[in-house]
Amino acid sequence: TRKRKGEMKKDKIKKDKKINIFLDMDGVLSVYEEDMVKRMTDVNFFRDRKLYTNSRLLFSALKQTDGFHIYILSKTPQSAPTAYQDKMHWLKTHFPEINKQNIYILPNNMEKGSFIAMQFPNCINVLFDDYTPNLIEWEKQGANFIGVKVLNGINGKRGTWTGEKVNLDSFLDIQKKIKDNIIYKKIRSNY
Fold first, then answer.
1. CB distance 23 to 71 below 8 Å
2. Staple 14 to which of 19, 44, 67, 90, CB 3.0 to 4.6 Å?
């Protein structure tokens, strides 16, 4: 069978570079709550967070995409002594299929992009995050760092992020963005 031009390029990208997908937790996999900042230091706060229903759809769609390596990348406040254990417990409960070695939970004072640039310097690294400063810092790492803003019903109202977006409240938007392969389109525009 003959491949279209875009498919050949997609195959070449996959062979040349490993594609890592990093999913943030708070506001992407778990529901972001307006009063969250005040309650972050509460014991078991991160353990008891609600699952964002469509985050399973996003995770499954990305996991089923050939060539993607899925990771969790989150931060914890230093003032919350149980946050790391709580987040690990939450992930084990809601996403048991994620290997522990694919989970990075960083202290809040560490930048996500800088950390991953040291871990995966020669890969294409894509971050799905709801927080624009994280995405801006991520893309400053170079052309192989791609940010995708996750709109969760609370964020995305100021228009500060002009890059790729996916609306977590819309089942159809998630399906369409993954089906249309926004990640490969962005990779092709960077190379």
1. yes
2. 67
